[in-house]
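In keeping with the milestone schedule agreed at the kick-off meeting, the structural modelling team has produced records for the first pair of proteins. Each record is given below as a sequence line and a structure-token line. The laboratory manager (R.T.) confirmed that both were archived under the project's standard naming scheme.
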Amino acid sequence: MSSYKPKKEHRFSFGLWTTANRGRDPFGEETRSRLDPITNIKELGKRNVYGFNFHDDDLIPFGASLQLRNKIIKDTKRAMKDYNIVCAMATTNLFYHRVFKDGAFTSHDPRVRAFALQKVMKNMDLGAELGASVYVFWGGREGTEVDASKTPEESIKRYRECMNYLCAYADKNGYDFKFAIEPKPNEPRGDIFLATAGHVLAFINTLDDPERVGVNPEIEHSRMAGLNTYHDFAQCMEAGKLYHVDLGAQKPNRFDQDLRFGSEDLKETFFVVKLLEDNGWAGTRNFDEHPYRSEDEKGVWDFVEGSMRTYLILWEKVRQFNSDKKIQQILKDLHNTDPRLEGLMRRFTPEGAKQLQQHAFDPMALSKKRLPYEELDQRTQELLMGVI
């Protein structure tokens, strides 16, 4: 992989909102012109990107006529065919329009909740038509600044009702979507419901169709909460609920920076790549991030190419880690096995518990086992820095 050139089989994807980002922030207006979605899809396809993702309003302007909608859909399908790019994921914009200023699924107003369901169902129809396999739900406005304004238990109940409704809608229409809920602790709301991967995992178990629903953890959102993204991704994967991933970069405990993948905390990012590749992640390596506000249009495509290149470089580093004799010997020495004790602990039985209670342990002897984590971490660090 010395050239680090992306290929379709690497399954990289980008949201249309990432490359179409115009550099606007709360303190300044746009610094780039709007990139229309069809050109966006074509340019991604030219760079061997496997798939694109879209919010409904990314592809079809809010309130567009049926004639315009049909034309855009036709042009999208043509671009997908001509540039060999798939629609990998769809989602709904339930945060931008002022109607959602106090939530969509958790709004006090049943008319707003009903409109949100309508908007999602229409876009699910389009996502299915374009071949999306994953449908993501990010509740950007599902939260509060004023705790007296909403009770969390009522809001979560409403959230659940909407998710159950949409699961049933997908089932009725034969849509084979995997639903993935995307956690975020705050921003744009002061506090957002389902703030972390753990919150989402607990919530899923309360749904009517928990098998359909998983998690879409995002590097930036985990770091905003001061959490280890590698651990977040791993817990979702171990639970069989890692249905989609969002890759990017973020300084811990800041606003949502959406920086280019790998540009912050390279070691943690390395272990995210290692997790995905060592476990044969079958989903897309999706980038949800924004080019720097200082960039022009060329910089947008530098950003796209840089994200994929960094992933491929880190993937190469994973191979080096897995074949490094010193690292692998340390790991082998660390991992003890004791088939008899492991068998007793695997599942409770009265007889097994009795044997475990009677087993003679020597805690002082156990405590003397050397754990060379300094050496392991230094070796990993030098590998990432290209010294070994």
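The second protein of the pair:
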Amino acid sequence: MRFQVFAPALATLLVAGSLAARPARAQNRVANYGYGQPGTAAYEHFSFWTNFGRRSDLHYASGKDRNDLVLRYAGRARLGGQPGFRVRFPDGGLRYLALRGDSLLVSPSPTAAPKIFAWEYEGPVNGVGTACSVCVADATAAATLLRRHYVR
């Protein structure tokens, strides 16, 4: 009878203890890349998300109003002979992506000349704005996220 009273409390303590013993790991991470000047018609933006260390959401935004599209990962591919991956747009179109250093190369075919996207900082500028707690810290971290979860 006494065990039945203490069992829920004991289970709670065991779960809390095991969680405390594990190192913290961010649930969501995002690497953002852009091409062109934000707020212009020529602007393009990709967001690559991970959740619990696994590839998750892909987003593409473009234009002055940043019209957002949800993309699908379409598997590994090569772009200009470099290892990369493909993404599928809602209309069925594909883009081929690869990394060159910390830059993201994006092309409509594996042999066409790519556009070069740069990592985009998301957060306060000169102390104004909101910090992005899930955003990777810099271009190197963004490239690492893509290599680990999308290119491999």
